[in-house]
Amino acid sequence: MDEVKRSFAPIVDERTRLLVLGSLPGEESLARSQYYANPRNHFWRLMENVLETPLVALAYPERLEALLDRQVGLWDMVGSATRRGSLDGNIKDHVPNDVRALAESLPFLRAVAFNGGKSASLGTPLLRDRAELTLLPLPSSSPAYTLAFEEKLARWLRLRDFLGPSSSRRKEGGARGG
């Protein structure tokens, strides 16, 4: 029997300009309570290139801080679902997160990026009438999606158009400076 899996809380703040939406955390992410915890998933490597900031070597809390610093938020389209394994194709009986309400609560939100086809197919209908938002379907960062990293990256680099300026400077050891 498939067990019910639940997404994490959104990672956003009042400055969020770009929201990246996945589908539902995979098994390793759920086990570690971290977005994109599977080291084979390309998400952190892709975002490292988008932000032009080292992320992969950072501890998870510092990765999230770096995203928020550039006004990037994270969440998932699926709030809960039954699923065997980590593949989006195995998601059944899903209950969506209230992405529309979250988007409406973010005054500086300008774009929503969908990490993969499942996320885009669920999220686009909910947000397509929001004329002020740019909706960006992206190739999945999942290792199951076999498009070459360089091809994924070429499409993900479009996110740079929606980043906010860095509001902090990182010092040696990851400390925040003023």
Question: Can you walk through the features of this model?
Answer:
The protein is an alpha/beta fold. It is 29% helix and 21% strand. The protein has six helices and nine strands; from the N terminus they run ββαααβββαβαβαββ. The strands form three sheets. It has a four-stranded parallel sheet with strand order 3-2-6-7, sandwiched between helices. A three-stranded antiparallel sheet has the order 1-4-5, with no helix packed on it. The protein has a two-stranded antiparallel sheet with strand order 8-9. Mean pLDDT is 87; it is low at 169-178.
In short:
The protein is an alpha/beta fold and 178 residues long. The protein is built from six helices and nine strands.
Write the layout of secondary structure elements.
Layout lengths: L3 E3 L11 E5 L4 H6 L10 H9 L8 H10 L2 E5 L1 E5 L9 E5 L2 H7 L5 E5 L1 H11 L6 E5 L10 H8 L12 E2 L5 E2 L1
Parallel strand pairs: 2-3, 2-6, 6-7
Antiparallel strand pairs: 1-4, 4-5, 8-9
